[in-house]
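Render this sequence as a predicted structure.
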Amino acid sequence: MSQERRPRTKPTEDRKLLRATPYADTSFLDSDAWRALRIQGEVIEGFDSLARLGPAVSIFGSARVAASDPSYAAAQDLGARLARKGITVITGGGPGIMEAANKGALEAGGVSVGLGIELPHEQRINDYCNLALNFRYFFARKLMFVKYAQAFVIFPGGFGTFDELFESLVLVQTGKIDHFPVILYGSAYWQPLLDWMRDTVVAHAMIAPADLELFRITDSLDEVVAWTEQSFVEADDAARAADASPVGRETAEAAQERRHQGSGRPE
């Protein structure tokens, strides 16, 4: 700490700190340095709140889906099934598919998490979350979806849903996460996307044919649950193998990361 003496013409730092409005300068609230502290605070709060969740699945889908839509009923059923198996359900905390999954989990007696986001139009976290967090920054929120879930289940949705889908695929493709199923529910909605990726993206060599195996499409909730449970088993086996590796856990994990990277130039 600096030993420089305070000039007699300046007030002490304590006095400046305790100034009340309108005398305090609040311009710092809009500075990048203060935003960095807010971001740090959001990440710390997220880590602190979610660290003890245990097995969890993030469920994504449109906020525009009505309760009368068949996909709403499917998401509610899936949330209940996961909760009854002791698996936490994490959503974006909004209406539509998110509300349905939270509702199913909560009514089945499970842990139902909503991770809300500040948007220009008012949107509150739905009433079916027993653990709710609000975020200012998308990237801090998205970190929580990936860090504290071991699978993504993605129902039909729009740009926000596509964002979560393709970000998760990049993380799996590059080996940043493994034993992490990305499951698309609703073949009628998702099959045209798969067809385009195969017939156009693969055909132009923008991704490898094997990259189409990074996700699965299904209309069966039984398959969703089974694939999710199997991924938990595989992840536990991989963790035990890394712990028992004679080269040490970090070296073993680095090898796993290289092995799971889909190609040398994944982008």
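Summary. The chain has a mean pLDDT of 88. The chain has one domain: 37-260.
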